[in-house]
Design goal:
The protein is of the alpha+beta class. The protein is built from eleven helices and 26 strands. An eight-stranded mixed sheet has the order 2-3-4-1-5-8-7-6. A seven-stranded mixed sheet has the order 9-10-13-14-15-18-19. The structure holds zinc ion (ZN) (2 copies). The site of one zinc ion has 6 residues, from helix 8. One zinc ion (ZN) binds at residues 267, 269, 350, 371.
C-alpha cells in the first residue's frame, strides 16, 4: 500500500489562542474554515508543504471533539493518510486483525471517502484513511495535443477481479453520475441520507456505474453503463464524468467489444442500457458489442417500448430499439439460466420486471443486484429509491435477498456505489453490516 500524509488533526479548546500561535507566531497561513455539520466541528486548514494541519474547533458541547478536549485536553487528535484504494486498505487491515472504527468507507469532506482505525491498533494514534474521488471539481481536462497528465484514475473507478469457483468476475466502471439525493432515498429524511451520501450544491449525490463481466464457458457482460451517446446538456444535468469509462476498463480487463458473447440487461434504464448501442462513423446506431446476443426480459422490453409519463425520462429508445433492428435481441419470459452458472431472477420493485443476476460456481454464489440495492448506503430495508415504481415489492425482494445473502455468504455487487464494488453481508446481534470484498488482483 502506498500512503501520503494528508493532514494532522489538532483538537482545539480556544481557537483564538491556537491562531495566535499557528498563524501569528509561526506565521502560517490559514486556508479558511470548513463546517462539518454532522460532526459539529469547524475545521481550519493550514497548508504545510504537501500536507496540512487541521485545527478542529467544536461547534457544540456534545461534539466528539468537545468531549475529547474535556477528557484529554487539547492537542494531537488524529493523523490522516491518503491512499489510492481505501476499500482494499481496509480489507488488508481487517485481515491482519486491526480494529477498525469504520469497516466501510464513508463520505468525508470534499467528496472524499474516509475511515478511522482505532488507536489500540495504531500504537495509540487515531488514524484516518482517506481516498479522493474524481468529481466535477477534481477531474482533469486534457486538451487535444497536450501531453498526457499524470492523472491516475482513483481505485474507486478501477477494474476489480474476483474469483468465484471456476468463474472469473470482473467489475468494470463506466464513470460517475449524479442524481438527486432525495429521489435516491425515497422517504428517508435528508438529515439521515446526507451523512451517508453528502449532496453537492445541486442536491445531487455521487454514484458510480459498474457493469460486470462473467468469464466462464462464455463471456457475458451484465449491463453496460451510460454509454457515449449523450450530449453536454445531459452530462450537465446528471453530473456525468466518463473521463474513465467502459472502453478503458474493458481494455484493462483484457477484453475488446468483440469478445463479449452475451450482454444481459437487468433493466433498460439509461444508466444501465446506455452502453448497449453506439453510433458508427456515419452517425447510425448499432449494437456496441458486435458478436453479442442481448438478453432482455420481455416484460421490461414491453414496458420500455410503451413508456408513460412517469417512466419516459428513464427509457431512451436509442439504447435498445437498434438491438431489435439488428436481430441480436433475445427476449426471456421467466427466471432461467442464461449461460452455465448465470441465471436471472425477477425482483420487481424498481420496475415491474427488474431482474438480478445470480452467479453460481463450485458451491459459491454471487449476485449482481442492480437497482434492488444500488449502493451500500441503500442496505437498510426502508432505504428505497423514490424512483422505484413498486417500493413495497422492493422491500419484500430486499428482505428475501438479504436472508439468502447472509445464509449463503453471497458476494454482492453494488452497481451504483461510488467506492465499493462488492462485499459480503453479515448479521451480528441483529445488526446488519457489509464487509467489502478484497479483489483477487
Ligand atoms: Zn434503474
Ligand atoms: Zn440505476
Amino acid at each position: 500500500m502506498k500512503a501520503v500524509l494528508d493532514h494532522i488533526g489538532i483538537a482545539v479548546k480556544d481557537l483564538a489562542a491556537a491562531l495566535a500561535f499557528y498563524r501569528d507566531a509561526l506565521g502560517l497561513e490559514i486556508e479558511g474554515a470548513e463546517e462539518v455539520a454532522s460532526q459539529r466541528v469547524r475545521a481550519h486548514f493550514i497548508p504545510v508543504g504537501e500536507s496540512k494541519l487541521e485545527l478542529l474547533e467544536p461547534t457544540a458541547p456534545d461534539s466528539t471533539i468537545a468531549k475529547y478536549v474535556d477528557k484529554r485536553g487539547p492537542g494531537l487528535h488524529h493523523i490522516t493518510l491518503r491512499v489510492d484504494d481505501i476499500t482494499s486498505a481496509l480489507a488488508t487491515l481487517k485481515q491482519r486483525g486491526a480494529r477498525l472504527i469504520d469497516e466501510t468507507p464513508r463520505p468525508g469532506a470534499e467528496g472524499a471517502l474516509v475511515a478511522f482505525i482505532h488507536p489500540s491498533s495504531a500504537h495509540g494514534v487515531l488514524v484516518e484513511l482517506k481516498q479522493r474521488l474524481v468529481d466535477g471539481h477534481q477531474s482533469v481536462v486534457v486538451s487535444p495535443g497536450s501531453p498526457a497528465t499524470d492523472h491516475r484514475p482513483p481505485a474507486a473507478s478501477a477494474v476489480n477481479r474476483f474469483a468465484l469457483g471456476n468463474l472469473e468476475l470482473v467489475s468494470l466502471f463506466d464513470g460517475f453520475l449524479r442524481l438527486d439525493g432525495g429521489a435516491m432515498f425515497g422517504v428517508v429524511p435528508k438529515t439521515l441520507w446526507a451523512k451517508q451520501a453528502p449532496p453537492d450544491d445541486r442536491n445531487r449525490i455521487l454514484l458510480g456505474m459498474r457493469p460486470l463481466v462473467v468469464r466462464g464457458a462464455r463471456t457475458m457482460l451484465i449491463d453496460a453503463g451510460l454509454g457515449d451517446k449523450n450530449d453536454p446538456k445531459f452530462h450537465d444535468i446528471y453530473g456525468v464524468d466518463r473521463s474513465r469509462n467502459l472502453d478503458h476498463t474493458l481494455a484493462e480487463a483484457g477484453l475488446a467489444p468483440e469478445d463479449i458473447d452475451i450482454v444481459l440487461a437487468t433493466h433498460l434504464h439509461f444508466d444501465h442500457a446506455g452502453g448497449f448501442t453506439t453510433r458508427d462513423a456515419n452517425g447510425r446506431l448499432r449494437p456496441k458489442f458486435p458478436r453479442a446476443q442481448y438478453v432482455v426480459r420481455r416484460g421490461e422490453w414491453d414496458d420500455a417500448r410503451q413508456a408513460n409519463e412517469r417512466t419516459r425520462a428513464s427509457y431512451l429508445v436509442d439504447n435498445f430499439l437498434p438491438l431489435a433492428d439488428a436481430g441480436v435481441l433475445q427476449l426471456v419470459d421467466d427466471d432461467q439460466t442464461i449461460m452455465p452458472g448465470v441465471r436471472v431472477k425477477r425482483t420487481g420493485g424498481h420496475t415491474m420486471h427488474h431482474q438480478m443476476a445470480v452467479i453460481e460456481s463450485a458451491g459459491k454464489t454471487a449476485a449482481f443486484v442492480a437497482d434492488l440495492v444500488p449502493t451500500t448506503a441503500h442496505l437498510p430495508d426502508p432505504w428505497i429509491m423514490g424512483y422505484d415504481l413498486y417500493p413495497m415489492d422492493t422491500l419484500a425482494s430486499k428482505k428475501a435477498f438479504y436472508k439468502d445473502a447472509i445464509e449463503k455468504d453471497i458476494l454482492v455487487f453494488f452497481e451504483h456505489d461510488p467506492a465499493v464494488a462488492a462485499g459480503h453481508l453479515r448479521e451480528e446481534q441483529g445488526k446488519r453490516r457489509l464487509i467489502p470484498a478484497a479483489p483477487t488482483s
